[in-house]
Every structure is written in structure tokens, then in C-alpha cells.
Design brief:
Chains A, B: One of its GO terms (cellular component) is cytosol. Chains A, B: GO terms for molecular function: histidinol dehydrogenase activity; NAD binding; zinc ion binding. Chains A, B: Keywords: Amino-acid biosynthesis, Histidine biosynthesis, Metal-binding, NAD, Oxidoreductase, Zinc. Chains A, B: Catalyzes the sequential NAD-dependent oxidations of L-histidinol to L-histidinaldehyde and then to L-histidine. The structure is a homodimer. With about 425 residues, chain A is an alpha/beta fold. Chain A has three domains: about 190 residues, 3-Layer(aba) Sandwich (Rossmann fold), CATH 3.40.50; about 140 residues, Rossmann fold (3-Layer(aba) Sandwich); about 40 residues, no CATH class. A six-stranded parallel β-sheet of chain A has the order 1-11-10-9-12-13, sandwiched between helices. In chain A, strands 6-5-4-7-8 form a five-stranded parallel β-sheet, with helices on both faces. In chain A, helix 4 packs across helix 7, helix 8 runs parallel beside helix 9 and helix 10 packs across helix 11. The longest helix of chain A is centred in the first third of the chain and has 19 residues. The radius of gyration of chain A is 26 Å and the shape is globular. The N and C termini of chain A lie far apart (about 80 Å). At the A-B interface, helix 5, strand 3, helix 10, helix 14 and strand 13 of A face helix 5, strand 3, helix 10, helix 14 and strand 13 of B. Strand 13 of chain A pairs parallel with strand 14 of chain B.
Chain lengths: ~425, ~425
């Protein structure tokens, strides 16, 4: 059974605090294995990748089969039916339009001393996107990772997608094509991350790696962080729905289940100001779980980690939601904009009764790669900025250096950094003698 | 001796490539020690912090002495002389003015389907700044970390600064005061990072940790990443100077030494289109090294990792610089703006003959916390954005859901995510029956 909490109960605070710290994910001790895999790929390149692919994906490949050929890509794309293709094209178009607005501005100004200051944004040269294989091989994730990279201006974009037993998802290949991906490699696991970070004869090394993956992939990303940039360490998905009694309980039930069906460790939380409505949603969830295709995933998620929390009013709902800092937040209330104003921490907010979270997974436009495990307190969903970096610019005129240089000399001296001070003082000396 | 390379030499490419991959930093195996320290602090809180502070900093404290008191802060600030205070105030003011321009814009728009989309930025609630103690206890680093956090709107800002043997740098305390820091803790090492990440009775847990530190601090930051946000794993400092023959060789020599004096592992590189000028700078460096206060640090840095590279022209200089992706880049040439246009990868660019890098360390305005070890290829210097996060917003009108919802149902079906599809389909069903 999911947990039922009522903010009016005397033990609410302790129970809610305990709920917040519930550990949802096993952290298997994969770190040693991953370290060895990375060292192996770093030393032996393609040979190591091929061995590991044989071992983990049961695929016997040669080096020249690691990348999909043009012909193979065309053949896979041709397998996609017209309805799926049209839907994927609409999604790509809307995601592109949203992310194009994220392109940041360069700035330059001259201050009162004559110093010209500013910054300039540029794209990373190359990026690698990890796409899981098998059950979680989602074409939508390809669009959500690849399109921001291409909007940012990444020139060389490689995706790695394992094809265990040779099974390829044609929609993943089509999504890569629609996004402008440059290379598709049929490899996965920590070996794919190592190949992207260090390069092999076949895989060009990249500057940034993004995309979801299992515990091995996450551990590998953590290990190569620094050598390359990474996006974030993704945890299981979460949804928090704030709903008043004027919703159809069945709608809210399927919204909750839309995260629960992702993963047994996913978490779905309802906060409502009406206890009877909370009960009705719980019953609707149970009913849907009788027939849901992925009930063997969704039921344990809901029973082990689900929650129905009854609060006095929507202000209290907002405050509790901020403590959860959910990845996805639905506001199914009369005035969702007013309620959204009270929220500080959430990866994505879906406003109103006609914005189920699944719209954001596919077609709304905003990114569906979002901070999990309370990290919305300090991080953001994937964006164009993740594929760009900023260079700061400074240019002193002689007058500017005369105005602010002496303070730099003072501070350098106080930090016992003589050469720092000299680099300014020598120039000031000439300016003052001119 | 520093390495001398000439791009016209037949073996240049192989020697330059080898130079790029020279490992400058030992990675001592500190990870096990750090894991134990974090576990200890997480379990035992202040008691563990006090024991570790006694052990590493030779300071016997009680829990109520971990934080500097108001009285202690005032007393330290009063020790700073007027010249230093005025310089620090000017630096704070200029850094604040620069970073205030980084505050990002919220966006909201309604597209042709009636979907309202956008995003909203907010500050992290609390942040912790690590400030090294001893030799590298720099007040300028306090300003550079704390001011962006406060400009972003961070409400609770804690700095940790170890005071080995009880030695406090009054300028560090004053810099914290000028930046609006809320708490100052006299602790350091991995135990400080653990206390910031997990909290103790004395230290409020934070959402984001920034600031430089030694190998233990870096390993601890890597370990708590995910539980909290971190800025970056900083490596030894670097400068690359592109200079033509019309510079005073001594000016360029002290510019190179201003990074070399930071750390034996720091790296200083000159690229010039004039071999005789390169030789003159090398001789000027040697001369300065005879008397420089920190010559015992700067000399090994220059001799082990320094480089003078002679190129055919400035275009070639820009291309080689991009391969280094330096933390700091000086363009000491006639038309630095034109040359800057050719640069893609650098943490900060200092343009012209009157902009020594040290100006940026203290007083220019841009941040001096910058990407090292070639990570300017994919990351940026510290900014206000590091203390903010973005929440995406989506609101479907009934018309918008009717327009784009069917494609979401198609894609959910193709990914075998039934509840995702249902959450849209149930709403579409009602809209279509209205």
C-alpha cells in the first residue's frame, strides 16, 4: 500500500521527514567493475569495446560494424510507419522551437573607467549521447538530448545505443536522423561511456556526455567527469500531483501511474486538500493496476513508494512540494498560475487540468531530462546551455588600468603573489611615466 | 628548462600532441580516506568534525566554537588596514556589478496551438563555499565565490575555512563580510565538505558547494555530487599568452610567472610569431626567477611545464590555443579583438597589452574561478547561473491538447507506456465529447 499522510495528524512531521529520506535506489557496488572497464577501453580501444559488447550484449561485431552505416540507417528509418513518423516529426519540431529560445546572448559593455567587459557563448565541439537499449530505448529521449545539442551548434554528435542480441529500435534511429545526429554506435554500458570519453579508432572522443543509463552507465559518467563534461546522474523518475477535488480521480490516477510504470523505483505522490478525493484517486489507481500493461512495474512502485498526502490548503501543498523538489509537478487546480508562484523547487511544472505530464515527455517542447532525487533544489533540466560554454572577456584601456590597477597590486601583495602584482605594476609604471 | 617548440619543425605535431597530454597533477589515492571521513561526519556529526579538525588542523575546538561569533568576525575585520580594505571594497563592487548582468530572464509565450510555454529561474536556497587555509587562503576567492551566490539570491551562505594552528587570515573574514556571507566555519578538508553536504548540529546542510581545495577536498566534492550540486573539480592554474614582438619581454615574463607562482603544477605557455621575442621572454623569466619571492614554486612550474611555441602567424597561434583550451588567455597583439574572434575555447580572454591576467584575478569584474585542464572545451567559469536553477513551465489549453495530444498518444504507444498514453487520451476523450 502507498503511504497515507495527513498534515493535521500529530506525527505528520516525523512521518513526512522519514518519507523524504526513503532510499529508493539500490546502489550496487559497480564502481570497481566500471573502473576496470574504463581502463580496458582506454588501453585497448575498439578491441576492448568489441569484447565487452560480445559479453554484455551477446553481439559479435567487428570494428567496422560498430557504427551504423548509411545504408543501415536508411533501412531502419524505412521500417517506421507513417503515423509514428509524423508524430516524431511534430515532436522534433516543437522541441526545436522551444530550445531555440534558450540560445543565450553575448554581452559587451564599457564601464566608467574605460574597461571593456563582457562574455561570449560558444558550443562544445563534440558531444556523445547515451541511449539505453532494450526496454528503456526511447526515441523521445534521443530527441530530447540531441536537439538541444544541435541547436547549441555542436558539430559532431555521436549517440551510443546498445542493441542486445542485435535488436534495433527503428524509431530510435529515425529520431537520431530527425535530430541531425552525426554517428550512431551500437554499443552500450560503461564501455560506451569510456569510448566516448577517451575515443577509440572508431569512436571520436567527445567533450560532453549526456543521456540516461543504468547503474553502470551512471558510475562510468561519474568517473569520466572532468575529462569530459556530463549532464547529471539521473535517478528514478518522480511525479508529484497537487489536485483539488474538482478533478476526475481516474485522470489523476493515470497521471500518477505514468511515472510508476517507468521503474519499480519510480515515485508518484498526490497532495490534495480533500481527503475523500485522495481516497477516490487511490481506488482509481488500484482499478487501473488491474489491467495496466506494465502493472508488474507500476504496482510495486506505487505500493512501495507512492503517497497520498492530505493537507489543509494549497499553500501547505506548495510548501510540502518544495521539500520534495519533484522532477515533475502537476498543478491540477482552478488557478494553477497562482499556485505555481508559490513553488520554488521543481524540474518542470505542468499547469492546469489539461496538461498531463506525458505531454512534456513527448511533445510539449520543454526537455524531459529533468533533475531527480530532490536535485531540483540545485539543478535544472537539460537545455541548450548544457552544450555551450561561456568565455569571459576583459580589455583594459590605459585609463582603466590606471584607475583600478593599484587596487589589484594591493590585493596581490596582501596575498603574497608578487608576480601578480608585478604584472600590473610594470604596466602602471610605464603609463605613469608617459 | 621549459619546452621550446616551433610549428615549422617536422616533428612539431607529435611533440605538441605529447605536450597536451602531459599529466601535471598527481592523483594520490585519497578516495578511501575521503569515503571514511564522509561516513564518519554523516554518522557522528559535529563530534567527527571536531576530532578531524584536531587531527588535521591541530585545533582543539568545542562545537560552539566551530562557527565564528559576531564578536570574532568584528575583531578580525578590524585588523585589516585601510588600504587593503579599500582595495577589497572596490573589488567587491566591481565583481558585483559584472555578475549582476548575468541574472537570467524568465520567459513565457503562447504558441499557435494555444500552449503556453516557458521557464522560470530561481536561486538555490543555501550554498557552501570552501576556502582553503594556509598558503592558498585568498580573500579574492571568497569574493569570487560568494558574490555570485548572493547576486543569485542565495539566502543561506556558509563558508568553511580551516585555520591550522589557529591562524586566521583577517582579509578572508572581511571578504566574507563584504560579500554578505551568513556563516563562517573554521573547518576544512573532506570533513568540511561532508558537513556542508549532510549537515551537523552546527552546520546547516546546503544545496550547492563551490570553491577550490586540495586533493581531499576535490575527492569529497566528487563523492557528494548528486546529494548536492558542485561547481567543478579544479586543477592547477594555467595561462597561455599569445604575444607578438612588440611587447616588452619582461611584461610577458611576469604574466607567465603570475600563474607559475601559484603552484608547482601550474602551467604557463607563450605562443609567439617571433622566435627572437620568444627567446627574449624566456631570458626575462630566468632573470625574474632569480629574485621572485615564490621562486621555489614558480621555477619548477616553469621548468617542468612551461612552454615557448613559435608559430608562423597569429592564425596558427589561435588554432593551437584552442587545442590547449586554456583557463586564462592573454592576447598581447595589435588587434586583440580580431584575434579573439578566432578563439573558440578559453575560460577567460584578456585583450590587449594593458590587460594582464592578474587584473582578472582581483578587480576586473569577471570571475576568476575558471575551467582548468582543458575543460574550457565544455565548461564555463563560475557565474550567477551556478547558484540558480530553471523550472520549465507548460500549460495546455483544451485546443492545444486537441492539436498535439494525439501525437503524444502515438509516441507513448510506440514506447509501450500505456499510462502515459491514457493520461492524454482520457482528457482528449472528454474534449472530443464536449
Amino acid at each position: 500500500m502507498p503511504i497515507f499522510l495527513n498534515s493535521s495528524d500529530p506525527d505528520f512531521e516525523s512521518r513526512f521527514a522519514a518519507f523524504l529520506t526513503t532510499k529508493r535506489e539500490d546502489s550496487p557496488e559497480v564502481d570497481d567493475v566500471v573502473r576496470d572497464i574504463i581502463a580496458n577501453v582506454r588501453t585497448r580501444g575498439d578491441a576492448a569495446v568489441l569484447e565487452l559488447t560480445s559479453k554484455f550484449d551477446r553481439m559479435e561485431l567487428t570494428a567496422d560494424q560498430i557504427l551504423f552505416s548509411e545504408t543501415e540507417i536508411k533501412a531502419e528509418c524505412a521500417k517506421v510507419n507513417e503515423t509514428d513518423r509524423t508524430a516524431l516529426e511534430l515532436a522534433a519540431e516543437r522541441i526545436r522551437a522551444y530550445h531555440a529560445r534558450q540560445l543565450p546572448q553575448d554581452e559587451s559593455w564599457t564601464d566608467e573607467t574605460g574597461a571593456t567587459l563582457g562574455w561570449r557563448w560558444g558550443a562544445v565541439d563534440s558531444a556523445g549521447l547515451y541511449v539505453p537499449g532494450g526496454l528503456a530505448s526511447y526515441p523521445s529521449s534521443v530527441l530530447m538530448n540531441a536537439i538541444p545539442a544541435k541547436v547549441a551548434g555542436v558539430k559532431n554528435l555521436t549517440i551510443t545505443v546498445p542493441t542486445p542480441n542485435g535488436i534495433v529500435n527503428p524509431l530510435v534511429i529515425l529520431a537520431a536522423q530527425l535530430s541531425g545526429v552525426d554517428n550512431i554506435a551500437r554499443i552500450g554500458g560503461a564501455q560506451a561511456i569510456a569510448a566516448l570519453a577517451y575515443g577509440t579508432d572508431t569512436i571520436t572522443p567527445v567533450d560532453k556526455i549526456t543521456g540516461p543509463g543504468n547503474a553502470f552507465v551512471a558510475a562510468a559518467k561519474r568517473r569520466v567527469f572532468g575529462k569530459v563534461g556530463i549532464d547529471m546522474i539521473a535517478g528514478p523518475s518522480e511525479i508529484l500531483v497537487i489536485a483539488d477535488k474538482d478533478n476526475d480521480p481516474d485522470w489523476i490516477a493515470v497521471d500518477l501511474l505514468s511515472q510508476a510504470e517507468h521503474d519499480e523505483s519510480a515515485q508518484s505522490i498526490l497532495i490534495t486538500d480533500d481527503a475523500a478525493f485522495g481516497q477516490a484517486v487511490s481506488e482509481a489507481v488500484d482499478k487501473r493496476l488491474e489491467t495496466l500493461e506494465r502493472r508488474e512495474i507500476a504496482a510495486p512502485s506505487w505500493h512501495d513508494y507512492g503517497a497520498v498526502i492530505v493537507v489543509r490548503d494549497l499553500d501547505e501543498a506548495a510548501a510540502l512540494s518544495d521539500r520534495v523538489a519533484p522532477e515533475h509537478l502537476e498543478l491540477c487546480v482552478d488557478d494553477p498560475d497562482a499556485l505555481a508562484e508559490k513553488i520554488n523547487h521543481a524540474g518542470a511544472i505542468f499547469l492546469g487540468r489539461f496538461t498531463p505530464e506525458a505531454i512534456g515527455d513527448y511533445i510539449g517542447g520543454p526537455n524531459h531530462v529533468l533533475p531527480t532525487a530532490r536535485s531540483a533544489r540545485f539543478s535544472s533540466g537539460l537545455s541548450v546551455l548544457d552544450f555551450m560554454k561561456r568565455t569571459t572577456l576583459s580589455k583594459m584601456s590605459p585609463a582603466a588600468l590606471k584607475a583600478i590597477g593599484p587596487a589589484a597590486v594591493t590585493l596581490a601583495t596582501s596575498e603574497s603573489l608578487e608576480a601578480h602584482g608585478l604584472s600590473v605594476a610594470l604596466r602602471l609604471k610605464q603609463l605613469n611615466s608617459d
